[in-house]
Amino acid sequence: MTKPNPPRWRCKRATLLSAVLLATRVWAQDASSVWVSTTINSQNDNRTLVEIQKTDTDVVVNKEVWENEWKLRWQWPDRSTVSLNSLEDQGVEWTFEQSTVSLALRVPAAWITTTTAINANTNVTAIPNAHGQGVVWSYDLFTRHDQAGLSGGVYNDARMFFDNNTFLQVNTNTFFNRTASSTVRLDTTWQWNSPTHMINVKVGDSVTGGPDWTRAVRFGGVWVGRDFSLQPYRTTIPLASYIGQATLPSKVDVFVDGVLQSQKEIQPGQFEINNIVPSTGAGLATAQVTDITGRVQTISIPLYGAGVLLQKGLWDGGVGVGRVRRQYGVRSSVYDADLMGSASFRYGLSNYFTPDVHWEGTRNGQMWGVGGNLRLGSQGGLLRASHSQSVSHGQKGERQTWEYQWSSSRWAATVGEQNTSAYFWDVAVEEGPRVSEQQRQRYAFGSVNSDGRTFGVAVVKNTTPTISTNVASVFFSQQFDSGSSLYLSASHTSGSQQDNRVTAYWYKPLQHNRSVSSSVERNSAGHSVGIDVVQAQPTLGWGARAQLRSGDVDRAAVQVGYSNSAFAWDAGVDYYRSTQSNTALYAGARGSVVFMNGFHPSRQITDSFAVVNTTAPHIPVYLENNLVGTSNDKGVLLVPYLQAYQRNKISVDGSALPAEYKIPSTTQWIVPRQNQGVHVVFDVKPISSVTATIVDNNNTPLPLGSVLAREGDKAMVGYDGMVYIEQPSGTWTDEKTQCRVQIPAILGYNTLGVLVCK
């Protein structure tokens, strides 16, 4: 048996010992735990410390830290830990900072589980914050004198509004000439609005609603329906969205057709842009992503907007019951003896498809139909179609329509057709003769826009068994940098009717709200040439217009007008000559009278308004930064033209206040109700302050630090008995000596000299 060589064994034993020590050292390094703060893709989170295993060249992380603390996604292998170096080929980078004991980690953006939501548009409901009750009477009167004698008339609109979202409105029209006069009631309506639910209820005279493939009729009765104008900030058309991702903290700017819609800072990971409002037709949204290194990524999002589509889950429609109105504007109260019913409903089944249904009927007949609006993808345009059927007096009828639309900022095209069978019936037919033969209309329109120029063509063909008419037209318009514009058109009518027409129109704006325009037209009957010079009538001030026409009819007219905060008027002379000549003199006036917290004359009021009280007289008042008038001697001004259920900015010019007055705020945001008035008060307060020297009975100034008190108010005495007091009127008492000093009521900033504290 051979013994091992002792020296060699000792050498091997030393080598083995070194290997064991080295392995122990490496194992100790791999097993060492370090608590670190972490930055992931440059996003700091110093609130939480996590435990990692650190060596000189690697970092080992367990699955719990990865998913729960760092909130990262990754396809984990069948073990609980992973080396960061092993993920280098998957795009993972890391840096360990020894001095701060922090780990900077960068991973692919798709691994980050957090998502940042970006709202490109937020539906806002402007809750009315001011209201009132009162009465408004609006008038529009005119008079004319020519060879036929004197004639004229007045349109009256009376409205009573209340604090509970309701108003009652009555309007009439009166006409007279030298032989007769008459007054006709037009509409009488009571209305209640619910802005929260976008519902209105009308009792009295109203108009039926429905899809655009139906015809509206006037009736007297009850109407309950959806009214999106009660939430004007709400977007009802389908909104687009986009999902992207960012590796580093970034800023996202969203543009729609070049107009900035929103800005938001986002963190690394996925981001989602919601509620992108498309423009009408084909458009483009752009998301510009700028990370913290300054690198810019531009993302294009194609859009197609159509106003007839509803957002998914949104509905529109209404129901009406009553009696059809006849001879509107001629007779005051002529209604059918039979009841009429009408019902319509539209629903956003998806963001691409909005179907609609409609029914209407009386004892004489019924009509019902279905239709739909379908968006063909994100850029494919809009397809519309409907089918209606009717039955009346045993005769059936039907109508079909279809239309395809596509438009963008440069191109637009529409093609469609409508076929109506003989004896098709709807409620509107009762006003005139029934259709006794089939009718067919086909049409196509197209236009292209480029650099302020627009060129378009149109073709319309109307066909019945006995008549056929074709109309073809072209037009061109040009907008110039100077603000002027040119419009040219030509049309040709053939078939049962014959006509050729050419028109040219030119418009040029001038300084000081003046403009000049001219036109030339020739048709089969003759020609005409005209020129107009206009001084636009401002909200406050003078306006004028002069007009000349020559052709089959020669005409010359001059008109002047004036408007102030109480009313507007105009007057003119009109001369024309055809087979005979005639000269007319005319004049008119328009305005309103409001009974609300007093009596207020005003320019004509068509919707909401405000009675503004500035407290102080002769203060300029602005609506949306535009001057609308100056308050009267009582500090009151009526401001018309407010937008219902929208935020209206009303402000006053604080610099116009007298020196002895101050105002806490010069701006108020007012949200009025529809057809109602609000009372807006700017709390202008008088300024009263004094500087005085307070002495005692021995003419010695009160000591420094003495305190004068008056019903809880206090004033500190300074050097040499000097004191400054705001709103000083009354009796002030020295807290130490109990002497008293009387200060009078006085406006403005005042120096009173020496006052004796007795």
Report on the structure:
By secondary structure, the protein is mainly beta. Helix content is 4%, strand content 58%. It has 2 helices and 54 strands. The strands form 9 sheets. It has a 24-stranded antiparallel β-barrel.
Low-confidence sequence ranges:
1-30
| Oligomeric assembly | single chain
Distance from N terminus to C terminus (CA atoms, Å) equals 132 Å
The percentage helix is: under 10%
Instruction: Compute the average pLDDT.
Output: 87
Radius of gyration of CA atoms, rounded to a whole number: 40 Å
Q: How much β-strand is present in the residues? A: over 45%
Tell me, briefly, the overall form.
Answer: extended
Helix count, DSSP H or I runs of 4 or more residues: 2
Taking the sheet with the most strands, its summary is: 24 strands, antiparallel, barrel
Structure class:
mainly beta
Based on DSSP secondary structure assignment, what is the total number of beta strands? Answer: 54
Topology:
Layout: H1 6-31, E1 33-40, E2 43-54, E3 59-62, H2 63-69, E4 81-83, E5 93-97, E6 102-106, E7 115-119, E8 134-146, E9 149-161, E10 166-176, E11 181-194, E12 199-207, E13 218-226, E14 240-246, E15 250-256, E16 259-266, E17 269-276, E18 281-291, E19 296-305, E20 315-324, E21 340-347, E22 353-362, E23 365-375, E24 382-392, E25 395-407, E26 411-420, E27 439-450, E28 453-463, E29 468-479, E30 485-495, E31 499-509, E32 514-523, E33 526-535, E34 541-551, E35 554-563, E36 567-577, E37 581-595, E38 599-602, E39 608-613, E40 620-623, E41 626-630, E42 636-642, E43 648-652, E44 661-662, E45 667-670, E46 677-681, E47 685-686, E48 688-695, E49 707-710, E50 713-716, E51 722-726, E52 730-734, E53 740-743, E54 748-756
Parallel strand pairs: 1-6, 7-17, 39-46, 48-54
Antiparallel strand pairs: 1-2, 2-3, 3-4, 5-6, 8-9, 8-37, 9-10, 10-11, 11-12, 12-13, 13-20, 14-17, 15-16, 15-18, 18-19, 20-21, 21-22, 22-23, 23-24, 24-25, 25-26, 26-27, 27-28, 28-29, 29-30, 30-31, 31-32, 32-33, 33-34, 34-35, 35-36, 36-37, 37-38, 39-42, 40-41, 40-43, 43-45, 44-47, 48-51, 49-50, ...
